[in-house]
Every structure is written in structure tokens, then in C-alpha cells.
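Predict structure. Chain length: 375.
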Amino acid sequence: MDRLKVRFNTKEQPEFFRILSKRVNLHFTDNNISKHADNRMIFKTIFMLLLYFIPLTFLIFLPITNFGPMMLCWIIMGFGMAGIGLSVMHDANHGSYSSNPKINQRIGFVINFIGGYHHNWKIQHNVLHHSFTNIDGHDDDINKKLVFRMSPDQERKSIFRFQAFYAPFLYGMITIYWFLGKDFEQLVKYNKQNLLNTQGVTFSKALVQIIFNKAWYLLLTIGLPLIILPLPVWQILIGFFLMHFICGIILGLIFQPAHVIEETDFFKPDAEGNVENNWAIHQLKTTANFANKSKFFSWFIGGLNYQIEHHLFPNICHIHYKAISKIVKQTALEYELPYHHHETFYGAVRSHFAIMNKLGNGRYDAELALKNAPA
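Prediction complete.
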């Protein structure tokens, strides 16, 4: 079945999202503020870019002769990579950074400076994940069937009994995988699914862009340090790997506990592609917030601990999520709809690995069968 033929139930409480959107829009008009970035976002953008590029500049132009200081630079760059991904390019590639599409395009391109490819990211994240959250076969964020079981609708293999234990290591490999192979795999897959045209790019053009961008990224982050730094090759490669591992595990532990946790639901379309809820209610049932009281944490991860608000209003810059979260929660409660939330980041991560364990050993299936059994 064509993944883009999924149809949500538009007849189920359509007034919920209409009322919610009206209230959120009034928040911006009544307070005379833009839905896009302001000076706070500009400061954050500069900070995150410097967090990545200052250590890189030190590695290239101030040749470091000691292993310790060199590793410190790579570690800082790992946090910079994560900061750029979560707090800068994420908004830009959603079109929420600026009302000017050209500014969004230019800032969104920064993903190529950390080893990714902007068109593939938009397809996976914007087109597939946001449209079909937690729907097996449609949401690419849970489509990891070779290494994980992230939905009860996926086949359970014996190795998945241990997935809660090996998941952190593989999360740390996320950006390495993106850089080395995933972008090429996705390009072939998205071309077959006719998804490249959603980005206005052909297969051949995208392939040339990927090869070119990854070539200069490799030269910048590996080639120049290898040429300039008076250190063994293995030390530089360890630093490069550590940078990606830090970034990868941060990304994995921010995005997965927002959807794959004990409280959220998973859905499978019927034979005709119908899903039981309307799109907005579907987002509430498949998404969760966490640690909303932690100001610095929320600042660093681009407000993505307000994942419910992000999924309902991806066109709004994340600096506004906290303010509109009160509106979203109140409206959801009025309509007796779920508003999943963990008070702490630890609680969300714990819930994620708990369900990963249950999905891996079959306990989730047994609990689901008992829940759905006739009274």
C-alpha cells in the first residue's frame, strides 16, 4: 500500500483543531508577536554554530599536539552538532525559522555541515514522520526493522529481546550511519516512492549534491586535521567518532522518548488506508512532552521537549512552544483528549527503554491483547 494514501478520520471532533488553531493564532495577534524567530533565536543560532566551528577552527588553524585537548575539541563539537541539529536547522527546515523561505533554505542547509543531507531530512522528518507518526510502514522514524522493533505491528525477532540494552550504542551511531550510508539508501528508496519531487529535486541532482557535500564535509572534518595535526591517524579518527557518537546519542534520546514510550499509541491503517483518528488527535495520542520545567535543557534541545506543540504546529518557531503549551493542554483537556507528559527527562527515557524491552520480549503484545480482549 502506498504510504501516502493513509487517510485520517476527518469527521472525528474536527472542531478541536479549529478551536485550538484559533486560540493559538490569537495568542500571537493579541500579543503582536511573530510566529517566527526573534533575537533569542538569532543569539542561539550564533551560539550553536560557534560551539561547533570554534573547536573545529582550533583543530585546523591552531595545531594541537596533545591528545587530551584535541579530544576536548571533538567533544565540544559533538554538543555543537547536536545543538545545530536540534535548535537551528530543525526550525529552518520546517520553515518556522523565518517568514522568508530563502532564509529558511540557507539556514537549513547547515545540516550538510554536520554530515547530513537537507532534502532527505525533510522527506523523512517533515513528510513522513510528522504526517504518519507511529504508523508502521509509513513513519520512517520507527522503521528500523533490521535492528529494532519499535511498533507492535512489526515482526518480533529473537535478537530484539536485547534491544533495550544495545539501543544506546546504536543511537550513538545515528549520525555516523547518516554520513556513511543512510543518505544514499534513502535517496534510492525515496526516488522509488516518488518522494524526491516533494523537494523539487531529481535523483541525479540529489546524488551529485550528496556526493559533493559529503566530500567537502569529509575534507573539512577529517582531511584537514589529518594533514595538519601532528598526531597519529587513529587518534584523530577516535575524535571524529566520539564527536558523532555524542551527537547521535543526544538525538536518539531526545526524539525517541517523545513517541516510543509506554503512554503513547501505535496505529495501523485498515485495508483501505483509513486511520481511526483525525490528524490532530492522532498527534496527541502518539506524542509526549517531557521536562517542561527545565529551562536550560529546553533551550539547548530546541524546545523539543514540547514535542506535542511541535507536532501540532511545526510552522511555529520553537521559542514560542512554552507559551502556547498552556493553550494546547487546556484545549486538549476540554475535549477530553490525552496530553502525555513526563515531569522529568529521566522519566521519559525510562519509559522509552521500558517499552523497548516489552516490544522486544513480547510483553507489550500480551498486554495489548489483554487490553483489547472483550469484557
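Summary: Residues 3-22+35-276+346-370 form one domain.
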